[in-house]
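Ticket reopened. Same input as before:
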Amino acid sequence: MINKEVANVQEALKGVTHNMVFMLGGFGLCGIPENAIAQLVKLGVKGLTCISNNAGVDDFGLGLLLQKKQIKKMISSYVGENEEFERQMLSGELDVELIPQGTLAERCRAAQAGFPAFYTPAGYGTEVAEGKETREFNGKMYVLEHAFKADFAFIKAWKGDAAGNLVFKGTARNFNPIMCGAAKITVAEVEELVPLGTLDPNQIHIPGIFVQRIFQGINYEKRIEQRTVRTKS
Amino acid sequence: MINKEVANVQEALKGVTHNMVFMLGGFGLCGIPENAIAQLVKLGVKGLTCISNNAGVDDFGLGLLLQKKQIKKMISSYVGENEEFERQMLSGELDVELIPQGTLAERCRAAQAGFPAFYTPAGYGTEVAEGKETREFNGKMYVLEHAFKADFAFIKAWKGDAAGNLVFKGTARNFNPIMCGAAKITVAEVEELVPLGTLDPNQIHIPGIFVQRIFQGINYEKRIEQRTVRTKS
Amino acid sequence: MLDKIGIAKRLAKELKDGYYVNLGIGIPTLVANYVPEGIAVEFQSENGVLGMGPFPFEGEEDADIINAGKQTITTLPGASFFDSALSFSMIRGKHVDLTILGAMEVAENGDIANWKIPGKMVKGMGGAMDLVASAENIIVAMMHTNKEGESKLLKRCSLPLTGVGCIKKIVTNLAVLEVTEKGFKLLERAPGVSIDDIKNATEGKLIIEDDIPEIIV
Amino acid sequence: MLDKIGIAKRLAKELKDGYYVNLGIGIPTLVANYVPEGIAVEFQSENGVLGMGPFPFEGEEDADIINAGKQTITTLPGASFFDSALSFSMIRGKHVDLTILGAMEVAENGDIANWKIPGKMVKGMGGAMDLVASAENIIVAMMHTNKEGESKLLKRCSLPLTGVGCIKKIVTNLAVLEVTEKGFKLLERAPGVSIDDIKNATEGKLIIEDDIPEIIV
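Engineering reply: fixed in the latest deploy. New output:
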């Protein structure tokens, strides 16, 4: 077994510097790498490009990095929950590239899987396709999209082991598995680091080969963005 | 819940006719749809095109269809275990298209995922790339490959439920999950059809949306091709 | 005229037995509450869940189980969770049978705009561009006019597009319309709404053939 | 001269701590038996398993757990199973650190042929074309000459290619060679094998610089 375990978030983020490109898992605040984000704030690295489906809210998730103006560019599909984000974007402080969610997902997966480019129908005929190659297949138009390139991928998983194997829970899975191995270094934080051999080999969502560093995360807040409930009658 | 359960293999293969294109899961004899293959022999449909990583052995797997000369064309990556196959190929009775295993896998996945085409490095500079578009990305050459089109996909899973959710076991997983939803109709046979709600939603390998028909398979032989063992000392 | 609930109820009649359905944020989300008796449908949410159920009971909400609107949800027996790539495989691969989403503008050629107002509002397209570029069966649910009373059914969209020529049907507070090669074909009108009301609220070409029945919800 | 075991033992010295390794059928498979003490490696098989262990004990073989050679295997703690798409994501995405495979011919420019003899033998390429087109670190394990005594290290491959310019190193029964821009650079010679023996058995350009040490296995 190749051991990927590191002691803590400090060790896990070694090598992180200014002006890097990061991938961050999560959808909304669900399944975000809370420990890695907190450490990025502490490190104070600036000029960052962040590939993440959303940009957090004002005081949580990537919003924490936006507050400190550490992010130079966001590559996302939806950013509608963050006033500071909107302010920085409209004032021109923040560069924003909005791309369709499925394209965002597949550009991660292409990086993970060694595909340089693929054709997708999403965005054809819209400003998303401007300047991009388009092409017809079987009577339908498609846009050529390219694999992302990133320095670090920050992943949040439910369970993991020292071999780097990961299991996700519910919709906290989202972009996390497809960002694993899509950057030069993949750092996974887990709610529960379990002993080797505990995870069923048949039920591992991401094999450890895609993960370079794994650590036991701490103090998860797991904030709920839209608490919707029924009352028992 | 949308019910995909059918009573038996006869019902599951309704609509199968001559000259159709099939996808069949399995690697070697591991994870092959034994019930569907047996029924195809019974139905006597001919002129078939079969997309499958291997072609079985002389008296099992797709070899059973080859014996009866039901297959017109095989699309595979490796066919080295079948003498009747070799005879038919060399005599020109059987049309054979050999493609790299990773390309075979991704052409299935592209069909499942609605991608018309993708660029892969496999086969560049070889006869596999002859007549195909090639292209440079980041200083490396790639070949344009297209999604498969098939009428039926025949899938073998370990467990499944009436919603069509599937779980695979060990290396019997192989091509099975990525062929689900890659043909017009996906037929899954399972060793164990479990009650709805029994499978952990977190641990379903293929959601039922990719499966049109599911049935409880019978009489699995699960033949071992290369029995390699140690003796206890 | 229909209210949001009325629009949702009328949309629910578009559900057919065996449909996998993706519901957008807003009015479309309400459709899940009015599934006709006797048919089975499953709801997919593009953040990675199939087989969504109702909201959880108070105290039972789970931060790890949400829909694309970031709302806490539950799942029904037979549900599954998956990653974002497989989720869009379902959408792009045409495995989702029906998509219902909101819009800011729809044009008579089937174009839709619903993600950006240049200089004013830029929330992003989320999964909408994948949905409209992929699905065969897309219905828009929206008010017939905007807050300024201007028509949202236009000759040409003025806002940045989400997709081209992709909308087949529209259900508004005033009417049900089909997008045809000739323009918006009026199919049904809301209770208490006249043909003239609809004409006045529709900038794009409106096609009226035969009698136009009232929407039954 | 090395036998197959000797070739496997020499190849095992190419393994480094932390390597994920894909071993082809034949001699490469034997390498797993000679992993140097004190290093951790994991073996991937492209049919969908990472963390392969030894063959099962008699009676414990499982038809659902095989390697790419269709042999029954076991797995070690930390192993995982996955589908063929994810398996080739590992390979194509350069997550596998070392690939060792057999060959029928290797050319001095790094071309390899190992899947087809036109008119005679057509077994197919399996995963070999993906492996050689993707991996950065590919070693060929083979006999230096074929059954007819003809060199398998050629100026140009005569058989249909598996990949172009992709082979970096070759371990044969006679020698260890590096593929360089100038040709096959001799690195080591097998015990009891002279430089002349290697020259005679090598059709492609052979580069001999300095002293050539004997292979230690």
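The domain at 4-44+83-207 of chain D is CATH 3.40.1080.10 (Glutaconate Coenzyme A-transferase). Chain D has a mean pLDDT of 96. Please confirm and we'll close it.
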